């Protein structure tokens, strides 16, 4: 049994003011000068600690307020009200919503799981991961607590090829390729986000955080070549066919690599296993209509791991005017295909795209993923606003280029630590002690589309033998 895994978190305050979701409107005229003002009774000290931000000239009360509405309701002359903050609504996009960015920012600052005393205020159904509900049937058993140590819960994850059984010749020698895998203490790999600000200082800090977490930093091979000071034991370079032909950096210098799929990669994998048996090679397949057949072919060819990567919204490219498919559905299809082949336990499935919140980790694993590559969420934890014009902006609102390395490392540790704690909470509520049991365990979740079809299909569905 591996030792208990713990991520050290400590407060890393924001460098910039994060817009609040609502603005306080405080009318001074008409004040009754109550002996005990509702502002003094604020349990969060919003009014005592408010000031004017010297940079944005905005009231910091909008950022400090927890939206309990106590002051709004209890002011006898109704002089305090709240309105939607237009600056808050401009954050992110339709997927990386202001609510998600605020949650990630809070977790990166404190390392804690957000708790709402007023109850859950998020959606109970919707697109993407919001259409999946996890089963917490064991939550009535309080002894299952993996965070505080009363019961051990392991998040150790294997990456690589694992044979279904061992075979020996008459002399007792192992027959076959054997096992070629490595393990990480949590099912997450840090990844540099595409389309957002990058810089040597940010990359080095992210690599330092990956080293502290015991996982890898996924990055393009050209950046790994330009930064030879990075520890190759913690770097996962991504090679395309052109960079493989150049031979720099050499893939076998790393413990884990990613290779873009190409014609003839089966022969390349066989040769690579011969020259670098200790390095695990992941193949990134194109997410087109043929990805399941390609996954099956790579599995038969002995690929240790396959990477299913979508865009930052978790969607695959739409083909021939069709609809894009969300990563949760792609993972379920891939997982079931491998089960039909009888090869699911031999290969590792990596997934990337659309992993925006802590609960998405558990939901993606339930759908069939082994390991998740987290990218955009990391930068959101560094106060990134996920601007649509990030590349063309002259000045970054969060000034990521000037972020101190120690601050970046701690923010990333806090974010991953909060996600890890929430994963332990979910597994404990499900009565699970090992992350491997969660993979593909769709019986521990409810899917809105399945429920809708089973509940309303017999009522509103059209029978095939009935004319249109």
Structure commentary:
The structure is a single chain. By secondary structure, the chain is α/β, with parallel strands linked by helices. It has 2 domains: 69 residues, no CATH class; 297 residues, Aldolase class I (TIM Barrel, Alpha-Beta Barrel). Helix content is 31%, strand content 15%. The protein has an 8-stranded parallel barrel with strand order 8-9-10-11-12-13-14-15, surrounded by 5 helices. Helix 12 links the parallel strand 14 and strand 15. Helix 10 crosses helix 11. The longest helix is centred in the C-terminal third of the chain and has 26 residues.
Index terms:
about 475 residues, alpha/beta, TIM Barrel, 2 domains, two-stranded antiparallel sheet, 15 helices
User: What is the CATH homology-level superfamily of the largest domain?
Assistant: Aldolase class I
CATH fold descriptor of the largest domain: TIM Barrel
Which secondary-structure class do the elements indicate?
Answer: alpha/beta
Pick out the low-confidence regions: none
**Largest sheet entry:** 8 strands, parallel, barrel
Number of helices: 15
> What distance separates the N and C termini?
60 Å
Rg, Å, rounded: 25 Å
User: Total strand count, please?
Assistant: 16
How many discrete domains?
2
Give the fraction of residues assigned to helices.
25-40%
Nearest-integer average pLDDT? 85
Describe the secondary structure blueprint for this structure.
Layout: E1 22-26, H1 46-49, H2 61-64, H3 70-74, E2 80-84, H4 86-89, H5 98-110, E3 132-134, E4 157-161, E5 167-168, E6 174-175, E7 180-184, E8 188-191, H6 200-213, E9 217-220, H7 221-226, E10 235-239, H8 241-246, E11 256-260, H9 265-275, E12 280-285, H10 291-300, E13 305-309, H11 327-341, E14 348-352, H12 358-367, E15 371-374, H13 376-381, H14 405-430, E16 445-447, H15 448-460
Parallel strand pairs: 8-9, 8-15, 9-10, 10-11, 11-12, 12-13, 13-14, 14-15
Antiparallel strand pairs: 1-2, 3-16, 4-7, 5-6
């Amino acid at each position: 049994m591996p030792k208990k895994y713990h991520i050290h978190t400590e407060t890393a305050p924001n460098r910039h003011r994060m817009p609040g979701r609502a603005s306080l409107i405080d009318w001074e005229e008409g004040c009754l000068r109550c002996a005990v003002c509702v502002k003094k009774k604020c349990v969060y000290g919003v009014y005592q600690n408010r000031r004017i931000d010297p940079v944005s000239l905005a009231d910091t009360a909008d950022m400090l307020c927890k939206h309990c509405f106590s002051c709004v309701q209890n002011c006898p002359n109704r002089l305090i009200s709240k309105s939607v903050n237009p600056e808050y609504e401009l954050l992110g996009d339709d997927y990386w919503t202001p609510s998600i960015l605020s949650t990630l920012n809070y977790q990166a600052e404190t390392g804690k799981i957000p708790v709402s005393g007023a109850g859950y205020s998020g959606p109970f159904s919707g697109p993407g991961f919001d259409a999946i509900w996890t089963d917490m049937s064991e939550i009535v058993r309080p002894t299952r607590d993996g965070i505080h140590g009363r019961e051990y819960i392991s998040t150790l994850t294997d990456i690589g090829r694992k044979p279904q059984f061992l075979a020996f010749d008459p002399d007792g020698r192992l027959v076959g390729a054997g096992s070629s895998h490595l393990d990480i203490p949590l099912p997450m790999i840090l990844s540099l986000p595409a389309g957002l600000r990058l810089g040597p200082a940010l990359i080095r800090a992210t690599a330092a955080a990956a080293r502290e977490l015991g996982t890898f930093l996924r990055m393009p091979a050209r950046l790994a070549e330009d930064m030879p000071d990075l520890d190759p034991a913690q770097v996962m370079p991504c090679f395309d066919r052109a960079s493989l032909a150049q031979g720099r950096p050499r893939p076998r210098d790393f413990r884990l690599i990613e290779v873009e799929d190409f014609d003839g990669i089966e022969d390349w994998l066989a040769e690579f296993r011969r020259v670098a048996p200790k390095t695990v090679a992941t193949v990134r397949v194109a997410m087109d209509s043929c990805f399941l057949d390609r996954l099956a072919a790579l599995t038969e060819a002995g690929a240790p791991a396959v990477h299913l990567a979508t865009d930052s919204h978790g969607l695959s490219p739409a083909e021939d005017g069709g609809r894009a498919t969300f990563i949760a559905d792609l993972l379920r299809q891939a997982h079931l295909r491998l089960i039909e082949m009888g090869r699911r336990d031999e290969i590792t499935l990596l997934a990337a795209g659309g992993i925006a919140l802590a609960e998405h980790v558990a939901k993606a694993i339930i759908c069939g993923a082994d390991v998740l590559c987290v990218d955009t969420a990391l930068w959101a934890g560094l106060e990134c606003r996920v601007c649509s014009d990030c590349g063309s902006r002259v000045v970054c609102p969060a000034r990521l280029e000037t972020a101190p390395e120690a601050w970046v490392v701690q923010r990333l540790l806090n974010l991953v630590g909060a996600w890890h704690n929430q994963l332990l909470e979910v597994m404990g509520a499900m009565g699970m002690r090992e992350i491997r049991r969660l993979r593909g365990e769709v019986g521990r979740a409810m899917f809105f589309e399945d429920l809708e079809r089973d509940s309303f299909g017999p009522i509103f569905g059209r029978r095939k033998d009935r004319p249109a």
